[in-house]
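Technical annex, item 7. During the second reporting period the consortium partners agreed on a shared format for inverse folding records so that results from different sites could be compared directly. Each record opens with the tokenized structure and is followed by the designed sequence. A conforming record, contributed by the partner at site C, is shown below for reference.
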């Protein structure tokens, strides 16, 4: 009986030590401390009314390991004053490829956008929202997949029937920070999703100024042209991941000559956050 009590006491002591360690690590997280701090706000009267309205949507706050720790409106999340305190939220970057030729669909952000206006970027980049229960589901990345399908419809007019959530291929997630201008910026844990699909694009002009399909050489030529500007997350993903994964996608064409995003299963370790800050 004495041995049993000692064993039980040892287990209890270890649990307490682990909880204490985890609590100390969590408390020292800049993202957690920022989420509990007094945060700055701003009047959006002088911005586009629709884009200002969208700033009321609630992002999912996370720590540096992508653990959900709360929710906050997009306006608060994207102010550099709050980002500098460590405030961090969850996001996704979707890349849609045409199956017949493997070309990537790009968008140029509208001039009305509050952050990173007029910049070229991947097909769609946005946030899962705390406002929707289905977008908070973490298992199998269901939340970000649902958000990607929703935003592809909102921004590019692509029907949800053409972007089924189980067809998105999750690759990895990155932690990055990027200022937009002196006031606005991004600080995100960004899930990278690939989708191969024939889609019908009907752009929302309040979201997108232009769009086009490009192959690898055409995208590289765009990067080499100094007259083009690109979102910082797209440049980071292209620099470190996109072109390599794109090569694999093309190499693994099916017998029908088409590309399939699901052939990329296992090419990246999606279990951890890749730190790029």
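Designed sequence (site C submission):
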């Amino acid at each position: 009986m004495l041995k049993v009590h000692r064993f039980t006491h040892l287990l209890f002591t270890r649990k307490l030590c682990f909880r204490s360690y985890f609590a100390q690590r969590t408390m020292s997280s800049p993202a957690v401390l920022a989420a509990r701090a007094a945060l700055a706000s701003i009047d959006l009267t002088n911005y586009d009314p629709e884009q200002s309205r969208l700033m009321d949507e609630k992002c999912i706050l996370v720590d540096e390991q992508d653990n959900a720790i709360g929710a906050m409106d997009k306006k608060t999340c994207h102010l550099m004053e709050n980002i500098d305190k460590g405030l961090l939220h969850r996001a996704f970057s979707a890349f849609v490829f045409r199956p017949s030729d493997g070309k990537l669909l790009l968008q140029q952000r509208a001039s009305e956008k509050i952050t990173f206006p007029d910049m070229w970027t991947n097909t769609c980049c946005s946030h899962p929202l705390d406002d929707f229960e289905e977008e908070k589901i973490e298992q199998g990345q269901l939340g970000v997949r649902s958000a990607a399908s929703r935003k592809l419809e909102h921004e590019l007019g692509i029907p949800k029937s053409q972007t089924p959530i189980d067809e998105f291929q999750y690759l990895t997630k990155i932690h990055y920070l990027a200022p937009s201008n002196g006031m606005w910026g991004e600080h995100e844990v960004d899930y990278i999703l690939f989708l191969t699909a024939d889609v019908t694009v009907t752009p929302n002009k309040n979201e997108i100024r232009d769009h086009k399909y490009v192959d690898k050489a055409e995208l590289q030529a765009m990067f080499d042209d100094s007259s083009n500007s690109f979102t910082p997350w797209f440049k980071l993903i292209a620099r470190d991941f996109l072109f390599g994964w794109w090569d694999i996608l093309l190499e693994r064409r099916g017998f029908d000559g088409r590309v399939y995003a699901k052939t990329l299963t296992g090419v990246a370790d999606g279990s951890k956050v890749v730190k790029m800050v």
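The mean pLDDT is 91. Helices lie at 2-27, 30-35, 49-54, 74-77, 80-83, 142-156, 216-224, 232-251. All partners now use this format for quarterly exchanges.
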